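From the methods appendix. Each design record in this collection lists the tokenized structure first, followed by the designed amino acid sequence. Records were kept in a plain field format so they could be parsed without special tools. The example shown here is representative of the layout used throughout.

RECORD:
FOLD TOKENS (204 positions):
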């Protein structure tokens, strides 16, 4: 994953693309954190477990709803689309701050049950979950770039699949799809100015 991240960052041509290009690197960092969390269970390393649990939840619950619409909006040039994405930025910022409050205010724990389960208060309330999904997935639907739209669709489908089959552990399971999502970001930066066959990448 980190390899994809490095290659993706090298495709950046404009400074506005840097946050979007960093998404694969951040996915890679999150996977490393969860790998360290697994080791904390294996070696009964309590302090490491606490640090990695909080690090992972900061990524999953706070960073993504803020960072995804921010990075998508930054590369957008169509005025009305940019305004719509701003609404998702506001929603994502509100969700991120709300969940950050719970991370600070209440103990967050993790446990192993085939997958890693993160015990996080209040997250599964429907209104909050809907805003989270809107910020992290639906915001990409309004991009004028086709492959960013694809990123949003795949993010939403993978979220739904992970939540449907592994509700308690869906954040851990959802992480498994990050390689596909990272590849989409790489292809976007590689072909954003190309006119590909079958209209794959003409802007909306």
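DESIGN:
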């Amino acid at each position: 994953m980190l390899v994809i991240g490095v290659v993706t960052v090298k495709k950046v041509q404009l400074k506005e693309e840097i946050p979007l290009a960093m998404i694969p690197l951040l996915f890679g960092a999150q996977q490393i954190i969860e790998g360290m969390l697994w080791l904390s269970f294996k070696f009964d390393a309590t302090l490491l477990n606490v640090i990695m649990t909080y690090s992972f939840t900061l990524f999953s619950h706070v960073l993504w709803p803020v960072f995804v619409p921010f990075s998508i909006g930054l590369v957008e040039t169509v005025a009305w689309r940019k305004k719509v994405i701003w609404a998702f930025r506001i929603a994502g910022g509100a969700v991120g701050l709300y969940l950050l409050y719970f991370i600070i205010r209440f103990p967050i724990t993790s446990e192993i049950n085939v997958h890693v389960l993160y015990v996080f208060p209040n997250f599964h309330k429907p209104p909050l979950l809907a805003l989270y999904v809107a910020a992290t997935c639906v915001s990409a639907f309004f991009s004028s770039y086709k492959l960013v739209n694809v990123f949003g669709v795949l993010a939403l489908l993978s979220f739904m699949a992970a939540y449907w089959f592994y509700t308690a552990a869906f954040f851990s399971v959802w992480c498994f799809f990050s390689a596909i999502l990272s590849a989409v970001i790489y292809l976007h930066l590689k072909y954003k100015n190309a006119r590909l066959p079958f209209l794959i990448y003409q802007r909306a």
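APPENDIX NOTE: The chain is about 70% helix and 5% strand.
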